[in-house]
């Protein structure tokens, strides 16, 4: 453990900076991915999808191989690739059969697409609060927000740890709801012996460039439901053209898109998937070392990992007790940033975005909220998600573990910077 033997002047106030150079940017792409991409380029087949009912409706050889390997890796019947995880969320909401005006419960503490995907099908997002330790949906708040109009729950496994899926799936079974797992940030996380993202009716992972593994852009949908899998494939690839020849009779939400992932990306994905376990284990070891090094710093709560699951640390989330610290989050974050540790001081409260505050999405007249399809006046006022709002406004602080290619020496420097700031709290209070 690094210690500060005397009170040094903080870099924020003109003292020496603890970390003199920026950490190396995280890059999971190696020679194997480059060679795989070259082989696809040399083949001349960069995509083999056809937007019609044909053997190539499901894509080319690399798409199919990557999907098979993902299904085997995550232990599911079906894996469907898409060109982004945002596309995956849109496809998932459509595939579970959302009707215009249906309410879908969702977390406010996530990337905006988690909720916007609901609006794409003219569903109505309803925001439930989060658990103060895991930052995931609080099942008690979910239950309190269920109405006769609720059709589904979208759960985000945020920062790298699974939500309380047993409780959420039990609520879904009790009320006849579908569940979507947005596990964009948590591929490889384990919940009670199963991979996060696989316990819902449909789930999946992001392959965006700053995630654990990536193809530049992309996403993977996973499900054990044959019907949902077929609908995901149809929505991905021009469903409206395909359903007739394929013999599909349920035409609900068969408005297709081009959400197709290419052969180069899937060739890269095949190589990346081989590395996921190693990447996760490495980041877990570094996060554990960071937690050990930060132990004993008064007013700082490091990540809490429930005993029945693992954390893969897309973000290393922390909380500040400002009463104990006697200063503000801004002061703490500014001091750490000045020492060379780039920390974020908020995440997001989606329900407070202008779209929800003004209830304007499609057109300028408040659709879908102001239309006949909306069953009631859904409340998005500040105060509906007090835990998420307090975290965002005053107490949350995060470090992006996936941003950097860290080693244990880098973690030691981060710990040194934290301890220097904590030793100099009187300077901040002044």
Overview of the structural elements:
This protein has 430 residues and is of the alpha/beta class. It has a domain at 31-272: Aspartate Aminotransferase, domain 2 (3-Layer(aba) Sandwich). It contains 15 helices and 13 strands. It has a seven-stranded mixed sheet with strand order 1-9-8-5-4-2-3, sandwiched between helices. Strand 6 and strand 7 form a beta hairpin. The chain is globular.
Give the quaternary arrangement of the chains: single chain
Helix content: 25-40%
Q: What proportion strand?
A: 5-15%
List the strand order in the largest sheet. 1-9-8-5-4-2-3
Coarse shape? globular
Structural class comes to alpha/beta
CATH architecture heading of the domain at 31-272? 3-Layer(aba) Sandwich
The CATH topology assignment of the domain at 31-272 is Aspartate Aminotransferase, domain 2
CATH superfamily of the domain at 31-272: Type I PLP-dependent aspartate aminotransferase-like (Major domain)
CA-to-CA gap between the ends? 28 Å
List the secondary-structure elements in sequence, H or E.
HHEHEHEHEHEEEEEHHHEEHHEHHEHH
* Backbone CA Rg: 23 Å
The total of helices stands at: 15
The overall pLDDT, averaged over residues, is 96
Give me the count of strands. 13
Pfam family, one: DegT_DnrJ_EryC1
Organism: Chlorobium phaeovibrioides
GO molecular function: pyridoxal phosphate binding; transaminase activity
InterPro entries: DegT/StrS_aminotransferase, PyrdxlP-dep_Trfase, PyrdxlP-dep_Trfase_major, PyrdxlP-dep_Trfase_small
